[in-house]
Each structure stands twice: as structure tokens, then as C-alpha cells.
């Protein structure tokens, strides 16, 4: 257990659906991250939040919409996804938002878009 | 931006030391070397990091060459549960997230 939880662990959705991924960290950290891991591709950083402010949006399509209501919770709202968006979505947190901060990852949500 | 080069896979006998190499020949003076590992279908797990000096913790040791162009992660007594993909990452300082790159890692197979 890393202190970072993600729900749901598995999700199947159609291209017209709207769904949300949830991440919660119990570590008292100030920064949270969303990553995408597609099959046989390196981990890709999507979004970074520091003290509930977005500090990085790594050229992610608008069909992915993050939300950080407080420093412990992070959401990823999904709508009109494509089959190529099927991947493992990982949440992480760190004490600060510097790139050199140690990150603690959740178990991920395995997403399948049909 | 400093990228890393790792062998795609390595084998190690259970109980023996696993030595995982990483080349980062373009590393800058203020960039740290981090190691994470990812066991199948789980989130990556932090192992160790360092700047210049060798580091040791309860999981592993990190040996960084004097010129900082390469490093080696050492798992002193590998177990079957250490089978995973190991990522060597060079992190730039502060908010340079456009240089945040995990790479493909080394798949370590620990065999009985």
C-alpha cells in the first residue's frame, strides 16, 4: 500500500459514455499527477496539480478533463473517448510539485474503450 | 534533456545480486537519477535516487560513476517478488515536466 488509492480499478466504457476516475492520497502531499500507460509504450505524464492548481497539461486532448477539488483528491473526467484511449491510468502524489520529488503511485485504473 | 538507456531485459538467479545498468551520458549537473520499478499491472514503486554519491536504503543500492554518465542499481539478494520492469529516470529540476521521461526500462526476470 502506497497511500494512494484509485477507483474504479477496472472500467469498460463506450465511446459516447461519460465517466470519471477518482484518486485519493492519504499522505498529506501537495502535488498530484495523472499518467497514461498504453500497452508497450512508456509512461506518459498527462497532468500535474500543485496545491490544487494545474501546473502542467502535457498536450492532452480535451476529452480528458482533470479536476482537483482539494489536495487529497484528483479526478479525471472522461467523455467521448476513442478506442486508442484504452490504457492503464495511474495517479501519483508527491510532497511538492518539483520534477525531482519522489512520487508515490496508486494501483491504476485499467480502462477499455469500446 | 537527459535520456536514459537501459537493456530491455535481464535474468538473475534467486538469492543472487541483481545489477541493473543505466546510461545517462547527457545528464546535467543538477539532475537527479531516480529508480522506480513496476510489477505487472501495478503502479510504479519508488526504489532509490541520488545525485552524485552512492546511496543505499532497505531496498537497494545505487552506484553512480564519478562522471555521472552511468549508474547501477543493485538488489543485493534478488527474490522472485523482485521480478518487474525497472526504470532509470533522470529528472530535471523544478517544473520542467516536458522533460519528464520514464523510458522503456529493463525487465528483470528472477528465476528459482
Biggest sheet descriptor of chain A: 7 strands, mixed
Instruction: Please describe the biggest sheet of chain B, giving its number of strands, its sense, and whether it closes into a barrel.
Output: 5 strands, mixed
| Distance, first to last CA of chain A | 31 Å
Based on secondary structure, the structural category of chain B is: mainly beta
Count of alpha/pi helices of chain B: 0
Instruction: Kindly state the number of beta strands of chain A.
Output: 11
Helical residue percent band of chain A = under 10%
Q: Can you tell me the overall shape of chain A?
A: globular
Verbal overview:
Chain A has no helices and eleven strands. Chain A is mainly β. In chain A, strands 2, 4, 5, 6, 9, 10 and 11 form a seven-stranded mixed β-sheet that branches. Chain A has a four-stranded antiparallel β-sheet with strand order 1-3-8-7, with no helix packed on it. Chain A starts with a strand and ends with a strand. The N and C termini of chain B lie far apart (39 Å). A five-stranded mixed β-sheet of chain B has the order 1-9-8-3-4, with no helix packed on it. A four-stranded antiparallel β-sheet of chain B has the order 2-7-6-5, with no helix packed on it. Chain B contains no helices and nine strands. Classes of the chains: A mainly beta (114), B mainly beta (112). Chains A and B meet through strand 9 and strand 10 of A and strand 4 of B.
Amino acid at each position: 500500500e502506497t497511500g494512494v488509492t484509485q477507483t474504479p480499478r477496472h472500467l469498460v466504457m463506450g465511446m459516447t459514455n461519460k465517466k470519471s476516475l477518482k484518486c485519493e492520497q492519504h499522505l498529506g502531499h501537495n502535488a498530484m499527477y495523472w499518467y497514461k500507460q498504453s500497452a508497450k509504450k512508456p509512461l506518459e505524464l498527462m497532468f500535474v496539480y500543485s496545491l490544487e492548481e494545474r501546473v502542467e497539461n502535457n498536450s492532452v486532448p480535451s476529452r480528458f478533463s482533470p479536476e482537483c477539488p482539494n489536495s487529497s483528491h484528483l479526478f479525471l473526467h472522461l467523455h467521448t473517448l476513442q478506442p486508442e484511449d484504452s490504457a492503464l491510468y495511474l495517479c501519483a502524489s508527491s510532497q511538492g510539485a518539483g520534477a525531482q520529488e519522489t512520487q508515490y503511485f496508486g494501483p491504476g485504473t485499467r480502462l477499455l474503450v469500446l | 534533456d537527459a535520456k536514459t538507456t537501459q537493456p530491455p531485459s535481464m535474468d538473475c538467479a534467486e538469492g543472487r545480486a541483481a545489477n541493473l545498468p543505466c546510461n545517462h551520458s547527457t545528464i546535467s549537473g543538477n539532475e537527479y537519477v531516480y529508480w522506480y520499478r513496476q510489477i505487472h499491472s501495478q503502479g510504479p514503486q519508488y526504489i532509490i535516487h541520488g545525485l552524485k554519491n552512492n546511496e543505499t536504503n532497505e531496498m537497494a543500492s545505487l552506484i553512480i560513476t564519478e562522471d555521472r554518465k552511468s549508474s547501477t542499481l543493485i538488489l543485493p539478494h534478488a527474490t522472485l517478488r523482485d521480478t518487474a520492469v525497472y526504470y532509470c529516470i533522470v529528472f530535471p529540476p523544478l517544473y520542467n515536466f516536458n522533460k519528464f521521461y520514464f523510458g522503456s526500462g529493463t525487465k528483470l526476470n528472477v528465476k528459482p
